[in-house]
Task: inverse folding
């Protein structure tokens, strides 16, 4: 895919007060990079993108009539959920897969990927948040959507969903409580990862600015098909709508970061 755009905007009601993000929605790579020297089958794995998240983001944006921004490029090219100075920004090795096109990597090529893909995606997020704030006169609630693998290094992950966060608990606590109230659902509080990462999407666009937010992860096997996506969209949409109705979610308030 030559000259691919780094992001896709799902248009919605900017005065809804809600903005969705999907850093790892797709596994596309521009034609000039081929398959980054990898077997094509790698691009169906979690190391290339978050399985199920593109479909879940589309479903939630439609149900909630809110706008969203999704990155189109694979994180194997460059990871949009990392700061520009993060050593894992362009991975040389990911979950046992060596990425030949990423090593060695010249400074010029690193800058090229930042300028063509990473930065345009983040500029699109800035534009989404600004447009939403202009429409309502107050900041939107920002929800970042991701998915995680059911196993890691042979160990099963028991959580069905996880909420990752840093220092701002406003959206996180009620989100965890609401998910936990769903019968049979196991919720991870900063599981299976810790949500405090300096320079990542939530840190950059929300923590540093005092915008209420949460990063919501769903286990990949639960949203790997249309039925699973529909189920989780039905579960998540009313929770986000209730959160969005709380005025506290639309006040700029800065909290200390753990990152």
Result:
């Amino acid at each position: 895919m030559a000259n691919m755009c780094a992001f896709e905007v799902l248009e919605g009601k900017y005065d809804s007060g809600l903005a969705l993000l999907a850093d790892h929605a797709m596994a596309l790579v521009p034609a000039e990079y081929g398959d980054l020297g990898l077997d094509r089958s790698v691009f169906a794995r979690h190391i290339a993108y978050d399985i199920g998240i593109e479909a879940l983001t589309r479903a939630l944006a439609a149900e909630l009539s809110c706008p969203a921004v999704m990155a189109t490029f694979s994180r194997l090219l460059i990871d949009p959920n990392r700061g520009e100075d993060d050593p894992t920004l362009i991975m040389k090795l990911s979950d046992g897969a060596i990425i030949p096109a990423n090593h060695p990597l010249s400074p010029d090529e690193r800058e090229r990927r930042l300028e063509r893909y990473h930065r345009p995606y983040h500029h699109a997020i800035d534009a989404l948040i600004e447009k939403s704030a202009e429409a309502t006169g107050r900041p939107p609630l920002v929800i970042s959507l991701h998915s995680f693998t059911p196993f890691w290094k042979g160990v099963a992950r028991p959580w069905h969903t996880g909420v990752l966060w840093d220092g701002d608990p406003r959206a996180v606590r009620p989100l965890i409580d609401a998910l936990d109230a769903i019968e049979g659902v196991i919720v991870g509080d900063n599981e299976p990862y810790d949500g405090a990462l300096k320079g990542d999407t939530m840190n950059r666009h929300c923590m540093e600015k005092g915008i209420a937010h949460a990063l919501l992860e769903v286990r990949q096997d639960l949203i790997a098909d249309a039925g699973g996506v529909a189920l989780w969209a039905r579960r998540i949409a009313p929770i986000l709508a209730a959160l969005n109705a709380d005025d506290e979610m639309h006040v700029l308030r800065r909290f200390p970061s753990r990152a």
The radius of gyration is 18 Å. The first strand starts at residue 7 and ends at 10.
